[in-house]
């Protein structure tokens, strides 16, 4: 696609601009700049045009024109993605299509427990609207104040609610998609049960904008829990954390709504660098777990369950120490501690990050084996391991050695990735549990996935987007 002999000429720009109106066709580089890089500044691109359509019909007209003229289009929602998938390439020939003006909640159906939402609705806005309707929309992640549903669905976001409620894909019942041709595929159905042929919506969810533009979706809502209890526990090892997880699943079952693992290093970094956090436990431990139990009946019910799990854990010697939040505010403070963990790594210098998953039962063995792999690439490098243990998903990040050189460490980027990902593969795990592929992991995916899987993905891509105008160069 990038070799195609076309350029974005002013007449074409004017035709695109006429679809959305001058105010919503950004051409000045100062206006466009925020769309060309992501907030961490790791990925930069070039473009001469950002379009901000205000209706599905305008999206459709844009894609029709893009298709006619072979103009590559990069969909963008909240621009918080972590794999460079929402950023255009350096050629200047791609246009950015921002969905942020499609921001209506079309319908909340409390009886069907569904919400029909447009792609540009901010995740937190949806959470608040569901709450006002006495329902829960459980997708929850640290970027929720700025990421949007179209981006959440396209990257199949995970976050902290997956254990009990599933990731974005599992929360999605139907989609409305504008295809690269401009045709609108309206599949906005509210059905939990629907066995009528191929599951087309799930091709678009997680496709990172490479197959079409999601303009709206039907999502699941849940009854709002009547009680929520959060606890912080200190443990001696990942094996102990696995035993505690097993115990919590056994006692609390579906009421166990979060089980987050935190290594001592990210815990220490957070205490050292984050503003306004307090030490959750008096004593230091090699590992910590943040656990949440929710009850559809009452706060007492949730409290009883979490106490049972922790006291049994203490009795069995699995748990070293634990504190149950004494108030909602303390529970929020525990969650805040978890949410600021990733940023607390920054002041420690350069880091190389991995978003991996392995079967939950393999987590302790993975942690042990990966430590050896890291040391073989960079002796003294500091493992910063935390994540959604209940989902088998770890953010297995590596900070450079103390007093080490940032640039020299980043020079080991590929070697470190390969070493850690080889360990992941040895456990039949995934090199991208929740952040996606984008540009960051595309070449590794192609090099290491089963050739048949890549071939099938390419056939799907060719069927939906034969001209290759949808977010080219991303995923495959
Ligand atoms: C602080 C922070 C914490 C995070 N925590 C988590 C976490 O816990 N779990 C997790 O899974 N992720 C996490 N993320 C990454 C997360 O996936 C994204 O933040 C979010 O889901 C992407 O939404 P967005 O609106 O920003 O999408 P964007 O970044 O704008 O886009 C993401 C992808 O979707 C495509 N896209 C966007 N909108 C559409 C559309 N309407 N139709 C088709 N394609 C589209 C883009 O082209 C791109 O490929 C985190 C990010 C940050 C910055």
Question: Which helices and strands occur, and which strands form pairs?
Answer:
Blueprint: H1 10-20, E1 25-26, H2 29-32, E2 50-51, H3 56-69, E3 73-76, E4 95-98, E5 105-109, E6 114-118, H4 123-132, E7 135-136, H5 149-154, H6 162-165, H7 168-171, E8 172-178, E9 184-187, H8 201-204, E10 213-220, E11 222-223, E12 227-235, H9 238-252, E13 256-263, H10 264-273, E14 287-295, H11 299-315, E15 321-324, H12 328-340, E16 351-352, E17 355-357, H13 363-377, E18 382-388, E19 393-399, H14 406-410, H15 413-426, H16 442-448, H17 451-464
Helix pairs in contact: 1-3, 9-11, 13-15
Features:
476 residues; alpha+beta; Uridine Diphospho-n-acetylenolpyruvylglucosamine Reductase, domain 2; Uridine Diphospho-n-acetylenolpyruvylglucosamine Reductase, domain 3; Alpha-Beta Plaits; 8-stranded antiparallel beta sheet; 5-stranded antiparallel beta sheet; 17 helices; 35% helix; 20% strand; globular; binds flavin-adenine dinucleotide
